[in-house]
Amino acid sequence: MSTLTDSAAEQSDAKNPSLERCLDVLLGAQNDSEQFAALLLVTKCAQAGELDSQTRRRIFDAVGFTFPNRLLFSNTVPDGCPAHLFQSLGVTLLACFCTDPVLAVHPQVLNKIPILSETLITTSGSGNGELLSMVEDAYQCLLGILAAPQGEKHLLSGGILPYLCKAYTNQNHCWEQALKILTSLITVLPAKCWKKSQPELQLLLTKLTEEFCKEEGEQRSQLTDLLPVFLPPSPVLLDTSWGKECLKHLCKGLFNILSRKLSLSQRDPALKLGACIANNYGSSWIMAENKEEGSRLLALIVNLACIEIRMALEDSEPFNSRESVLTACYALVEMGIQACTKEERQPVLKNEQKLQLVGVMQEACGAVMYYLQQVGWEKLEDPFVLVSVRLLGAWLAEETSCLKHEVFQLLPFLVHYMQTWHQRNVTCWKMRNDVSQMAITSSWGSIWPGDPVRFLLPALCHLSAEEAPRRMLISEGVPVLLYEYFQHQWEVLCSQDVPKEMHNTAELSLQTCCGIFLNLVVTEPSFVGQESCFVSLMKLLVLSLPNLLTKEGHLVLVANISTLGLMMTRLLAETPVLQENSSQDFFKAAINFLKNSHVALCLTDTGKQSVTLSKNYADVWEDISELWFLGVQAFSNCIQRLPWLCTLVLKSGWLQDTLHLLDNISPKSVDSDLVTALQSMLTELAKNSSSCRALIQTQGGVEKANLYGMAALEQCLSELP
């Protein structure tokens, strides 16, 4: 070891004998004055960045941290010397030490981050040479810390972020270095950065977007590459006045770029920036600009994205170098789909613009189908295939009538692809791997979870309603896949150790699965009765609904599971899972859902009562009304097959509450759909249970039937004793 050190020293001496003599003086210094003089000679002989690692270590061994600490905190300097002489020398020494990765994260360096931070904003673009040199050395220290393991975390904990923002915003000396460090911090720790220093980052982003809007040439190109990193989490920009101003600047800047004839190197970053904003804000960000200019930008950027997709995917040559841009274009087309299908009071696009965009998006999605048909089977592991399936899922969720032949041809691949990824995700889930391993990060920073089943569920809901594609889905084994997927998503929803976002996603997936199963139950009853996966699904519904009903905030999923289970009961009533002793809790929960929807409301001006929705139901009635009416009808049909349900109805108080409600409200306040639903339930109860019939009759059932126009109930009560 000594030989190696001596050899290195000899080489260094050969390169810089003056520096070696200074080091000898430094090592032999007897007091502060001698040490200070020697340090001045050392810094004069060589800047920190020019020293090799052995020389830096020799300086540190000779000086340590004690002397730099005294220099940094000294308040006096000799007469005639610059005011910041000692501090400048202290920072220079730290800069020398920080080029060593081990020393850069030493506690004695990390606790100087506040001092280094203050240094960054002590001077503007011109001024005292000593100060400018100290700022440069301070940045050298910060870059050394940044390059060390956990460097970003150390800098953020040290409170550096506001100072870097000020250094850039005020264009202080070396502001380019401030922007470089800021970019690294926000790239690695975006959420923590925005949480810690939103006011300063707000001012920084405002300045960056203003420059993006006004600048031309190379500077605008650099900003186009940089801005995706600095965008805050959604929905900050849409919810704040300063954020809307930033979006206006972004819109104007993007339109200025994309409306010109551009090279790929100019257009690609602009498309990626637009995609990054679209991924966070959908099409809403376009409205930050006035409606006319917003619609022009939306039409322009989506058209360009569609052209890029067609040119790449229809070309026989490989396009690997363009995948990041194409992924960005996919996000822009998804934004276009959203803008064309979303119902708004003030839509961004006029009808003729929508028609034109739908046409070009259809061509782009046709190219995606062609690509998947050609190479998808061979590239099941390719992330680009996954994002292609995601875009196709977004398109088919809104439009299945176009390109029917192509969709039909592609279905076998899509089913195989869903099965492959589902098995992989289930394996990862069982091993409880980090959820980030189940995701693919695109080139502009957004995370698209690797779940093609979820992407395609809305499309499957449409396709399962049409005979030809439904038959193919059945023949390809989709019902079994959907049952397994439903089971997996239920596990995710019940898990306590996953992020809330995963719970929300799982719940939406479960709701859509229920819609697909309902389509199959209604259109393929004989198949449902024969396929074993539906018995397994019924077992899962029987177990899950009572548990779900005890938790708040899941009424839409409760409606889906209740109605699906009741509809399946008509077909599977003879199976063991639906016998009285094993399914009572499910039917109690279903009755609970159905009976609590409507209440009487007193109208103060007339003193009469009117039927209205209870509060929880009113909040989601638009989403569950069809399910509720279908559920009442299905429950009524179940009574004949499972007569013991009548006892549950009586014990639950549903029958009593319904009769009481009809007693206390004005018949005019009840719409015909509700009358029909209640009549079906009351009639079946009267037919299949003497106890229920007696209760209805003693509560004036015939008079109520006549009053509300329930002819079937009136006839039933008249015919039966």
TrEMBL record:
<dbReference type="InterPro" id="IPR008709">
    <property type="entry name" value="Neurochondrin"/>
</dbReference>
<dbReference type="GO" id="GO:0030425">
    <property type="term" value="C:dendrite"/>
</dbReference>
<dbReference type="GO" id="GO:0048168">
    <property type="term" value="P:regulation of neuronal synaptic plasticity"/>
</dbReference>
<dbReference type="GO" id="GO:0031175">
    <property type="term" value="P:neuron projection development"/>
</dbReference>
<comment type="similarity">
    <text>Belongs to the neurochondrin family.</text>
</comment>
<protein>
    <recommendedName>
        <fullName>Neurochondrin</fullName>
    </recommendedName>
</protein>
<dbReference type="InterPro" id="IPR016024">
    <property type="entry name" value="ARM-type_fold"/>
</dbReference>
<dbReference type="Pfam" id="PF05536">
    <property type="entry name" value="Neurochondrin"/>
</dbReference>
